[in-house]
Amino acid sequence: MLAKYSLGANDAILAEEKHMPLYEDLLTNHSAVQIAGGAAQNTARGAQYILPENSVLYIGAVGRDKYADILRSACEKAGLKAEYLTVHHQPTGRCGVVITGHYRSMCTHLAAANEYKLEHLKKPEIWALVEKAKVYFVGGYHLTVCPPAAMALAEHAAKENKIFILSLSAPFIPTAFKEPLEKTSPYWDYLVGNETEASSWAEGQGKETRDIKEIARLMAELPKENGQRKRTVVITQGTEPTVVAIQGETDVKEFPVHKIEDKEICDTTGAGDAFAGGLVAGIVEGKPLDECIDMGHWLASLSIRELGPQYVI
């Protein structure tokens, strides 16, 4: 499958025309399991898994099809409120995942998700919900879709001294979408990513270092719009300790992950999304940083014991 569709064994890419047959191929010939996903939506469901019912709102776009119904059902079951822009001329986005051992290759066709518009976010009934929120999380994939919507949330958060969190989401975001990412950077209260994404950011910025601690420190020290809160950069490294850098602090911290045996690992797809979900839940609850990191590690360890982050164990 990897060779057939020119996929890396442990990668995350946006689908091109040559990848379009992948999805039906997986369903028809490989007994693929259909699971509600979407990177930021996985994080939202993860946070909601921990928080009281109806604590989390997810905003995005879907088509008018059975896959949109799957997402709505998953959100309802999770106690997650979803406000979707329904797109009539595109199907709901899909992500095909090929698992080999502990590696996963993700190929995403954004489709309807690629049609999200600022006008939906700014509708009075939607923006009223935005204004009620205290913490905002934006996945890096959204920077490929509607940067003005991400900026609207970022600017509102800074103006009202609310918390704005951005996830890098995939290695191509810091290079292929460098400009919209840089525009959001002054508003990052928290930046979340993995070691590959961090290295990609360093490459995109022309930095020679590939040392994750140093990259995290460089990210933390970028100019910041809201001076009332220090920026925190969180970089996961799979089974290696999570690296955390805080603006103005020279000491870059490390937090060991929750160890589990290889035989317990089912699928690492969405583990980073799950980690972010636990982290965000801790932030929402006002937990100390070390507890927030531990909550992220716990939810990620739960996620990799199942197919995708379903949060059902």
Reading the helices and strands in chain order gives EHHEHEEEHHEHEHHEHHEEEHH
Kindly state the mean pLDDT as a whole number?
Answer: 94
Beta-strand percentage range? 15-25%
Tally of separate helices:
12
How large, in whole angstroms, is the Cα Rg?
18 Å
Short key terms for the protein model shown above:
313 residues; alpha/beta; six-stranded mixed β-sheet; three-stranded mixed β-sheet; 11 strands; 38% helix; globular
Description of the structure:
The chain is α/β, with parallel strands linked by helices and 313 residues long. It has twelve helices and eleven strands. Strands 6-7-8-9-10-11 form a six-stranded mixed β-sheet. A three-stranded mixed β-sheet has the order 1-5-4, covered by helices on one side. Strands 2-3 form a two-stranded parallel sheet. β6 (135-139), α6 and β7 (163-167) form a beta-alpha-beta unit. α2 (39-50) packs across α11 and α11 (271-284) packs antiparallel against α12 (289-303). The two termini are 29 Å apart. The model has no long low-confidence stretch (mean pLDDT 94).
